[in-house]
Design goal:
By secondary structure, the protein is α/β, with parallel strands linked by helices. It contains 16 helices and 14 strands. It comes from Rhodococcus globerulus.
């Protein structure tokens, strides 16, 4: 059964993010300041948000025309990104309930390092850490990690599966009561309750144990955004939260139903996966004011900035196609979900590639533009229609977009009983309504999945 109240996460960019948004007069360019993110964290926690989420990129994308020019010049998606784990540490220091999610790629990292980092963050924040698992796909990223070319899609997901398997084993390498701290005996940690994992697989050989005790949440919350067939299957196996984007309510409902069915097929409780579509609401005192704000933001979007971001997401050089014709059918090595979304928009609105670039860079995802009441009406409709378990809220400009939403829309949702007035617990899992996994649950999940396969 779906939750009676929705969950809210904030998609924050540790850099300029949306092409055009950083140019808006209300945008504050504090991306290199810890105080900037701490202020956003306080705003979100005061509004009782579940978590703050940071995407990440491991290169300045050069997929559009083989150059970084369009990204850097336009302040597009990957023009600048600072390390999200360090940002989360600073945000954790000024909050006590807000979940803290960072993206780390399984394509270039090592399981021991990642398991250790997130276990450490979970301890330092009393159980609020979350890991957004991605499988990097850009050649520009590969070239930053001693590779001439990227792994194939199948290899990326095979590596990611084994990566998750190893990370879970490492989190379980300490039993919950292994840290004794008996000063008289002395017994700091009980050796009989700390175990090597001795993993030897196709991609990784890891002895273990981890040198950090089992995380307060058992395992940090796992987030994933797979939209291809392999990605959806991966997400249904491993994820606690799925981040997605849709061009319509209908496609969101179809995705929601499919993921829940896939989770059941993998022996999981479908209610244990929270699906949060991305939205970029623009709120105003009147509908006309909200529309004026959106129009002003949209006007600031350079088409090539949006196209270079889309080229990155699709992993297709869109500079090779005529700008004043429609996007043709193409093979997409990158994010299939974004391709389906833009195909739907192109066919529905008859957009040229130039118009699509502007639309992609400045879209109000979900179409939530209006007064707080109107935006809340739209969110309620999606939620009650079975399209989601909540939303991943993007700010059209930072930090003001978050301030507008938390000041106006959140109270409207609370008044309707659709969103919490107070946090239910102290850990992120508690606030998401997810039980704390028992030691060994990860191994049991792997066994169940292999039996299903």
């Amino acid at each position: 059964m779906p939750d009676s109240q929705m969950h809210l996460a904030a998609f924050i960019t540790a850099g300029p993010g949306r092409p055009g948004g950083w140019r808006y007069p209300g945008s504050v360019p504090g991306w290199l300041s810890a105080r900037y993110y701490q202020d956003i964290a306080r705003t979100l926690e005061d509004a009782r948000f579940d978590l703050a989420f940071f995407a990440d990129i491991l290169s300045v994308p050069d997929r559009f025309g083989g150059s970084t020019d369009s990204q850097l010049r336009n302040g597009a998606l990957g023009s600048m990104r600072i390390d999200p784990l360090h940002v989360l540490s600073s945000m954790g220091a000024v909050t006590s309930h807000l979940g803290l999610a960072a993206t780390v790629s399984t394509t270039y990292a090592q399981p021991f390092t990642v398991a250790r980092s997130f276990a450490s963050l979970d301890h330092l924040t009393d159980g609020r850490a979350a890991w957004n698992v991605v499988t990097s796909f850009q050649e520009s990223e590969a070239r930053n990690f001693n590779l001439d070319e990227q792994f194939s899609r199948n290899q990326r997901y095979e590596r990611a599966d084994e990566f998750l398997e190893v990370a879970g084993k490492l989190w379980d390498s300490w039993e919950d009561d292994a840290l004794v701290l008996d000063t008289e005996t002395p017994l700091f940690a009980d050796p009989d309750r700390v175990h090597a994992i001795n993993h030897a697989g196709e991609w990784f050989t890891v002895q273990g144990p981890l040198n950090v005790p089992r995380p307060p949440q058992g395992y940090p919350v796992v987030i994933q955004a797979g939209a291809s067939t392999k990605g959806k299957d991966f997400a249904a196996r491993w994820s606690d939260v799925i981040f997605c984007s849709h061009a319509s309510l209908e496609s969101a409902k179809d995705f929601y139903t499919e993921i829940k069915e896939r989770a059941t097929a993998h022996g999981r409780d479908p209610g244990s996966i929270k699906i949060l579509p991305s939205i970029a609401p623009v709120v105003g005192a009147t509908h006309a004011i909200a529309q004026q704000t959106f129009d002003a933001l949209f006007e600031l979007v350079p088409p090539l900035g949006g196209l270079s971001t889309l080229a990155y997401h699709l992993d297709v050089d869109l500079s090779t196609f005529p700008l004043d014709e429609r996007l043709p059918d193409v093979e997409v090595p990158g994010v299939e979900g974004h391709y389906r979304e833009v195909r739907e928009i192109t066919e529905r609105d008859g957009l040229t590639l130039r118009e699509l670039g502007k639309q992609y860079g400045g879209r109000a995802e979900g179409g939530f533009i209006g007064t707080a009441t109107e935006v809340a009406d739209g969110l309620e409709h999606w939620f009650t229609e079975g399209a989601c378990d909540g939303f991943m809220v993007q700010a059209p400009y930072q930090p003001g977009g978050f301030e507008d939403f938390t000041r106006t829309v959140v109270p409207e949702l609370q008044k309707r009983g659709l969103f919490r007035d107070e946090y239910e617990g102290n850990t992120l899992r508690e606030n998401l309504g997810l039980p704390r996994p028992e030691p060994g649950e990860w191994a049991n999940r792997i066994s169940t999945q292999k039996a299903v396969q």
